[in-house]
């Protein structure tokens, strides 16, 4: 990780000596210069005495201590905050994720420590990673065109299509309706967070992309809702800018069936 460069200085923070030693050995084998600390006070004092490239925080079962630690780093050493990585256990993963999201810091799962920790730190050390542009591709988890028709029903005059996409805890609920007698379609959608139902998405930009680029752009309302009318294109996608450097791409299905619907089944 430090090949051809000055050794990266890592501060490892945690109450468990064995866990600290395991990480010190792992990072040391990758060429890092490691220092350890066990408390909030010791961590702040150590940061004040020496410059560090990153902080690895292992809260074990003490989520409150982790929150206090990050809050204090944010208060006294804000430039270091983006270079904090938190270790999460399975039983505390959701709380760690919430904490990491609140302060925009990285987190890795303990069970994948060997696979994820070095990669996460290496990404932080790359200059282009200061403001990484992360795009997640959402997957379809429900499609009304795939749902079986009720017994005895041979066809339907309903030409709308309902789709539900997932990207992590985020959900994008879509309804596509052809406009009878024209080549236009209406798309209504809503952005939701299954892990945080009260999360707001008002003002989030939503862009409809076609073959030649942007087809339309709108912003989500208070509850993540949005609406787009557009001329039929067979292959389109949505780009939802959740945050400055976090985008979700929603690849819509090929619209052939919707086009046949517009002409009637």
Topology:
Layout: E1 9-14, H1 17-29, E2 33-37, H2 40-49, E3 54-58, H3 63-76, H4 78-81, E4 84-88, H5 93-103, E5 106-109, H6 113-125, E6 134-137, E7 139-143, E8 161-167, E9 170-178, E10 184-193, E11 205-210, E12 213-219, E13 225-231, E14 237-243, E15 246-251, H7 256-263
Parallel strand pairs: 1-2, 1-3, 3-4, 4-5, 6-15
Antiparallel strand pairs: 7-8, 8-9, 9-10, 10-13, 11-12, 11-14, 14-15
Helix pairs in contact: 3-5
Series of secondary-structure elements, N-terminal to C-terminal: EHEHEHHEHEHEEEEEEEEEEH
CATH fold category name of the largest domain: Rossmann fold
Beta content comes to 35-45%
User: Can you identify the CATH class of the largest domain?
Assistant: Alpha Beta
CATH architecture of the largest domain: 3-Layer(aba) Sandwich
CATH fourth-tier homologous superfamily of the largest domain: Response regulator
Number of helices: 7
Shape: elongated
- The quaternary state of the protein chains shown equals single chain
Strand order of the largest sheet: 2-1-3-4-5
- Global Rg: 24 Å
Give the proportion of residues in helices.
25-40%
How confident overall, as mean pLDDT?
82
Number of strands: 15
**How many domain units?**
2
Describe this structure as you would to a colleague:
There is one protein chain. By secondary structure, the chain is of the alpha/beta class. It folds into 2 domains: about 10-130, Rossmann fold, CATH 3.40.50.2300; about 135-145 and about 160-265, Immunoglobulin-like. It is about 30% helix and about 35% strand. The chain has 7 helices and 15 strands. The chain has helices spanning about 15-30, 40-50, 65-75, 80, 95-105, 115-125, 255-265; strands spanning about 10-15, 35, 55-60, 85-90, 105-110, 135, 140-145, 160-165, 170-180, 185-195, 205-210, 215-220, 225-230, 235-245, 245-250. It has a 5-stranded parallel sheet, sandwiched between helices. Strands 6-15-14-11-12 form a 5-stranded mixed sheet, with no helix packed on it. A 5-stranded antiparallel sheet has the order 7-8-9-10-13. A hairpin with a 2-residue loop joins strand 14 and strand 15. It is elongated.
